[in-house]
Amino acid sequence: MAVAVPSAPRISARRVRHKRGLIPLVVTASLFGPLIAPWTPRHAKAVPAPSSVLSSQSFVAGAVARSGPAVVTLETQRTVRTSTGNGMPQGLLVDPFFQRFFGLQAQPAPRSRVERGQGSGVIFDAQGLVLTNAHVVENTDQVMVGLPDGRRVSGQVVGQDSVTDLAVVKLEGGSSWPTAPLGDSDRLRVGDWAIAVGNPFGLENTVTLGIVSNLNRNVSQLGIQGKRLDLIQTDAAINPGNSGGPLLNASGEVVGINTLVRSGPGAGLGFAIPINRAKTIAMQLVEQGRASHPMVGIGLSSIPASAPGGIAPPGAVVRSVVPGGPAAQGGLQVNDVIVAVAGAVVKNPAEVVTAIDRSGVGRPLELRVERQGRSVPITVTPVDMRALKMR
What is the set of active-site residues? Predict the structure, then answer.
C-alpha cells in the first residue's frame, strides 16, 4: 500500500528590484508547507521561568507575620477636673461678706471631663504583659486593650517609669496570649532595616518601612529634659498613636519601642527605645513596681574644642558635684575630665551617663580622670536617683 509522504516546503526564488540594481535571490518558505522549527544554537541555555527567579512576598510580610499578632491597641480614659475660679484665693471666695462687697456669686463646683487617648503596645510575655510608653497610660482611670484577632480585654497598669517613658500593662482574663520575639538592640547597625508597627491615628495594624538612621541618639539632643534615654533613630514613619508599638528588624524581632516623632523642622525622624534597655526596665516594673536609675551626682559637659569650629576632644568635663553624693565621696572634683568608665574610653557626656546607668545601683564603678595633667583613678558607687534627691 502506498504511503503518502508529506512534501517538503516548497522554496520559491524571486528577484527583488532595488534602487541600485537587483538583489540576490531571496528564499522564502511556502505557506502551504509544514511549520519550520526555529533554529537553536547547540550550546544555548534555557531561560528559567520568571516565577522561579522572583518571589512575590517581601521580607516585611514575613517579619510582620511573626510579631504582628502581638501588637495591640491601648484605649485609655482619664478624668480631668477643671476649676472655674477667677484667680482669687479660695479662702476669700467662700466668705459671704467678701462676696456681697464685690458682688461675687458663689463659686460653682469644679467641673470634670473625660479625656480619651490611644496608643500601641506589644505583648512580650505569655502571661499577658504588654510593653508600652509611660505617657500612653499616665494618670489613666481605665485601659482597654484590643488584639488583632478581635478580642478586647481590660488592662491593669503594673508600673510606669517617666524617666525612660516605659510602662507595663497586664491583660486581665484569658491565658492564651500571642507574644513577639525580642531581639538584641546592641547588634543593630546603621543602615539595617527598620519596620514600625502600630496604630497611628486609630488606624489599626499599620506597617511602615525604613532603616536605622542612627544609634545612641541622646534624648537631650532633641531638647527633651528630665529623661535618661539613648534612642534608635529611624526614618520609618512613626505617627501619633504609634507610641508604644514595636520597631522590628528584618527577622521580625522587636528591637525597639517607638516613643516619639519629631515635628516641625526635621519632621519625619522617628525614635525608639532600644529593647535591651526596655527589657531591663520592664523586669524592674514587674518585680518591684518601679525602676531604679543609678546616679553619682555630677553635672557634665563636653570638652571645649581648641579652636572655633574644631572637633571636641573625647571625654567629659565635670562641671558640678552634688555635696555628699557618691562622686563627692569618691573624690571627684569640678573641672576633672572623665576619659574612661569601667575600663572603656568615653567620647562624650552621654556615654558617661550610659555607662553609669548600665553599672547598676550599689556596684562600685571605676573612673579614669585627668586632673591638671595627671591621670587619677576614682571609684564611685552609684545610688538610686530618689536617694540622691533626698540628700
Answer: 135, 165, 243
